[in-house]
Amino acid sequence: MGGMTTGKAFNVGEGARRPRGKAVLLILLWVASRMLPRLPTPGRSHHDDGEFDGDGAGQRGQRSGLRERGRVLFREHRTAWRERAGARILFLRQQASIEACRAGRDSADECRREKTLDGIRQHLEEAARGTYHRRRLFSGAAALERTWANVRAADVMLLSLCSDEDLMGRSIDVLRKTEQHLDKDDPLRVKVEEVAERIGERGVQPGDRILLMDALDTAYDALDAEYSRVRSLSGILRIATFFVLLGAGGLAVWGWFCPDSLNMCFLPEGKKFAACPSGEVHLKDGNVASDYAQRVDVLVIEAAGLAGAALTVIASLRSIQGTSSPYMLPLSAALLKFPTGALTAFVGVLLIRGAFIPGLSDLDSSAQIIAWAVIFGAAQHLVTRFVDERARVTLSDVGRPPSESESNLPKKG
């Protein structure tokens, strides 16, 4: 009876555990389904919504299309720039829908407006695809550039459709962008300043609309060039970080398999032990310093260098500033410090080991070796501070005319 009772209790407990396991599995599947990006249904065309039609059916299609796009746009985003781009796309779609309600002056003007609206729609569709594009390694910059290039093109095309009253208001925005991104002596900026000053008194004159469109497009091109410099420098720093990390990792592997060839041990005078980074080793008759080298010596030195580099990164956070650029250039500059610190720690201890620095030919303990490795790891700031300065200047150039950007360059000599 006791055995049967125990068996029944065991069976009940096992049966109670099974549903809980299934419930946990279902919960995990549900969480995974919510986290995975949902792409649009294949075969669905975003051009079939009647987005810019003026009749009732088109408006109903437009409203349903906006709801559908809203679900697609805002459920696929995982980064801040995608959210901001999605909001901008929805705003431009609404502006284009308003312009679709206005009729042209004649048949030729009506045809031109329809073609322009169709072009705006295509640009916004391409921008929307960029926002919900599946995130892959090294594909974020391409999706970002694709999205904002199409958004800016649609914004420029809207200038050709807006009324004269709206154009007078938009002229202030165009003037602000040209002053931000074009040089003070640029002929296009000078013309825009004249138009913006005159347009409030005399109204829109023939040729003003084309001039403002060209100025806005040129200002956007200048902004893209500024972001391209930030993206290029960020990419260069990431590649440099990879190769420096590869070099530091290669030295660690070399020291692991051939510890005697990268000897980090010292034989202090009057001591009965050899001082190695991984600890002290008792001396044996007839052995040299390389005979006491351990596999983890280089790894310990580089770990201490990483700690020293981390201290400099923490100290540099007090002067770090936020940036409106979508590329994390300060982060790329900070990441370069870590493998560089590991490398400078190894080189510094190697110089001491080779009696290159007078007075430091023999370190007395492993604690001294690690301490000097930390110091050499922190000393990487002497090299990377030029990278920090270049990153700061590059970020400060965004949103400034070329003449002001050149004045921010560090003085030579």
Automatic annotation (TrEMBL):
Keyword terms, alphabetized: Membrane, Transmembrane, Transmembrane helix
Region (Disordered): 40-69
Source species, domain of life: Bacteria
Membrane spanning stretches: 236-257, 298-317, 338-357, 369-387
Record protein name field: Integral membrane protein
Species assigned in the record: Streptomyces plumbiresistens
